[in-house]
Amino acid sequence: MEKQIATFKDYAIFMADKTSLLEIAQFVVKENYSHHLSSFTEEEINKDIKSVLEEEEYLYDNKSHIYIARDAFGKMIGCIRSFHWDKHKILPIEKIYGINPLNAIHQESKYSFWHIGRFAVAKDSGISTLTLFKRLMALAVKPIVEDKYSYMIA
Q: Which one, of 139, 123, 147, 92, lies nearest residue 28 by Cα?
């Protein structure tokens, strides 16, 4: 379920939940391909969507924050996700690059760690991608900057 939290001239931003994970996976993968690759197959896209969806379902918990920007027609034009890391789940940075954040950060129990990910904006929405990036990022980092014992992993 989505809850509208901000409205702008050409779009609105919603806080979403687990029910939006498939749409987010589809959007992120398709935007990534359109931004970075000149040729690809439907099979490659579907394989990556499945992989991203599985990872998001694995990482999602009740402390996750998902923000979706939608244009006036309801089309997704941006998204970002942050979740409170339990220090046990394997983060994308470790899965992809072999970097375990626990080797680089202190482990005192009073500190919280948040992972920011699944950021994407539509390159053809007609809305400034920089403005959309700043607005979505500000929402994603809000719980981190409000707590002096929180850190971001991205």
A: 123
pLDDT of residue 100: 86
Determine the Cα–Cα distance for residues 130 and 149; give it in Å rounded to an integer. Answer: 29
Helix runs in 82-152, H state only: 92-97, 129-145
60: closest CA among 100, 31, 89, 98?
Answer: 89
Number of domains in the chain: 1
Q: What is the domain-level CATH number for residue 67?
A: 3.40.630.30
> Residue 33 is part of which domain span?
3-153
Q: Provide the H-helix boundaries in the chain.
A: 21-36, 42-59, 92-97, 129-145
Write the pLDDT tens digit of every residue in 23-77: 999 999 999 888 777 777 889 999 999 999 999 999 998 889 999 999 999 999 9
Show the tokens assigned to 18: 């687990």
Distance CA 95, CA 75 (A): 31
Strand-strand pairing, 3-7 and 11-16: antiparallel
Provide φ and ψ at 43, rounded to 5°. -65, -40
Q: What share of the chain in percent tops pLDDT 70? A: 99
